[in-house]
Specification:
Elements lengths: L45 H4 L12 H14 L15 E3 L6 E3 L3 H16 L1 E3 L1 H5 L1 H4 L2 E8 L5 E7 L5 H18 L6 H4 L2 E9 L8 E11 L2 E5 L2 H8 L14 H7 L15 E4 L4 E9 L2 E8 L8 H12 L13 E3 L4 H11 L4 E2 L7
Parallel strand pairs: 11-12, 12-13
Antiparallel strand pairs: 1-2, 3-7, 4-5, 5-6, 6-7, 7-11, 8-10, 8-13, 9-10
Length: 365
């Protein structure tokens, strides 16, 4: 049985060089071994087979070059010569809200803009706060109050330890009052004995949907206060008669002893020394503490809604409802204020009818 031979073919490229088609000539030099063979097209990487684009060179005329140069020069920022102005202060005090801030500082500018708007027009009391009013224990004391300019509003009252939207709104309001009055913040011990009274003004012709907080009174439970001195007593202390008249005769010691009441000390002064509270407004008090149940540490009305009777309404509501079933009368000295400003002194004199006293915030009951 004869065996058949099968020839197999492979696609593998032969490593042997192909024989030359013609015999080698003596005139030609043998091929150099240092020269590399050209790789087949299929063995090259695809990146090498992709033709690269060469940048096209364009000829730019002289006018185009000049236009491009002028355009590049116009894009350059315009430089400004700055100078130090040592005479112009950077600290500015707003005449509307009395807040001092640094002019040109973004944080101070933003703080002043928001604070000045609240001082002039008040704070918003919206639907979010009204929705939480019942849960926070907000009590409406008076409603449909008509003011002298025709606007209407209402008075509400609540404790200062509320949370949620009302608590956040109260924190912003107290900070606004602190900056407007340049007063220290109320301590937690003082706030525990306080009630907050707000006057909410509704927009004309609109129901109670969107209101503004235009007035606030913080009422505090206290135990003692000092009576305000009368103008005659203040003038007698501030302008004492140091020179005696020529025709007056100084009393002898025997006459002084005989005219003095029994048991009186010889070294006691003729008049009690008054304590100054605010010398700019000529406000002095007697140093003797008197029992007083109600104190007003903070009173605020937005500047656009003053002289409408809002402060008097809030004070009367606080005096009538602060102690349940025991309305207080300021004319009898049952209400006291802390150190008032000039506008605050005018309010306490008009509303208190001469009986309002002065007290210190930090005191024990």
């Amino acid at each position: 049985m004869s065996s058949t031979l099968k020839r197999t073919y492979s696609t593998r490229a032969s490593t042997k060089p192909a024989p030359p088609s013609s015999p080698p000539s003596e005139l030609t030099s043998p091929p150099s071994s240092s020269l590399k063979r050209k790789r087949p097209f299929t063995d090259r990487p695809p990146e090498a087979n992709t033709p690269t684009k060469k940048p096209r060179r364009t000829l730019i005329s002289g006018k185009a070059k000049a236009g491009a140069t002028d355009k590049a020069k116009s894009k350059q920022p315009k430089l400004t010569q700055l100078h130090f102005s040592l005479d112009t202060p950077i600290l500015r005090t707003c005449p509307l809200c009395d807040l001092s801030y640094t002019r040109g500082a973004p944080d101070d500018e933003a703080l002043h803009k928001a604070h000045c708007a609240r001082v002039q027009r008040g704070l918003e009391w919206g639907r979010e706060e009204e929705r939480e009013a019942t849960r926070a224990g907000v009590e409406e004391l008076e409603s449909n109050i008509k003011l002298s300019n025709g606007s209407r509003g209402r008075i509400i009252c609540f404790r200062p330890d509320v949370g949620g939207k009302i608590g956040a709104k109260l924190a912003v309001l107290l900070e606004t009052i602190r900056l407007a009055l340049s007063s220290p913040p109320l301590s937690p011990a003082v706030l525990q004995r306080c009630k907050i009274y707000l006057f909410l003004m509704s927009k004309p012709g609109v129901g109670i949907v969107r209101e503004k907080i235009v007035g606030c009174v913080v009422a505090q439970r206290i135990s003692k206060a000092m009576a305000i001195a009368q103008p005659a007593e203040v003038s007698a202390q501030t302008n004492p008669a140091t020179e005696s008249r020529p025709d007056s005769v100084a009393p002898s010691s025997q006459d002084a002893l005989s005219s003095s009441p029994a048991g009186a000390s010889q070294s006691s002064p003729a008049a009690t020394t008054l304590l100054p509270v605010d010398s700019s407004t000529n406000l002095y008090v007697h140093p003797t503490p008197l029992p007083t149940p109600l104190g007003i540490p903070r009173l605020f009305v937005s500047s656009a809604h003053r002289r409408l009777g809002i402060a008097s309404r809030l004070l009367s509501a606080a005096a009538a409802t602060f102690i349940l079933g025991c309305p207080l009368n300021p004319a009898r000295g049952e209400v006291a204020f802390t150190q008032p400003t000039g506008a605050g002194k005018a309010v306490l004199e008009a509303w208190g009818r001469g009986g309002v006293r002065i007290y210190e915030e930090e005191q024990d009951l």
